[in-house]
Fold this protein.
Amino acid sequence: MTSRKITRGVAAGAATTLAIGALAVLGAGVAGAAPGSITWDDGSSRYTRYISNTSPAVGETITVSTKFERTSWVDEFIYNIKDRHHSCLTYVPGSAKMAGNDGSYPVQNPEVNANEAYVRAEWGVTEWSVQARPGFNRTPIFSVRYKVGENCPRDTALPTGIDYGGSLGSGNYGNKGPSITVGASSTVPGSGSVDTGSLGSLFGS
């Protein structure tokens, strides 16, 4: 049996939503937090990326999450994911996780490449499925946390995105967003972390 690798292009007319009001719940209690999200379709795949604070200050920690969905009955298995970010963001060790219907699982030994600015995780070929069939609905969520560095450019949109490989091909969305814009350094004691709330409640899983 042979497999055919298809590189996905961004579908014309992809639905995009920024700073969805419902996502503000995750920023509750954090002064100045500005959550943001973007949703787009490519073929029968749908992706939602969420950032807990798109206007963080230096020293704060943000969470970046990507939800995978299907809009057809054909299943997809996720093999690997690269979360791409600006090089001034530092990965928080131990923060990479994959969440599904039955819980959240830390990624063991993710590849952290500071020079190329990505965090990569991989799994067995049948570990994580994306499904939208009667009685089988699975929408896995990959998340990582980053600390905002002093070397981040100020008042500049810094792109984020993902690349991934799966049973239906590969997706390359390295600059898809949302972007973040770094403000002044935080001066409020204890303000170095943004509460991300529950990913399950965020994505309705």
Notes: The longest helix spans residues 199-203. Residues 7-181 form a domain with the Immunoglobulin-like fold (CATH 2.60.40.1510). The first strand starts at residue 7 and ends at 8. Residues 1-30, 187-191, 193-205 have pLDDT under 50 and may be disordered.
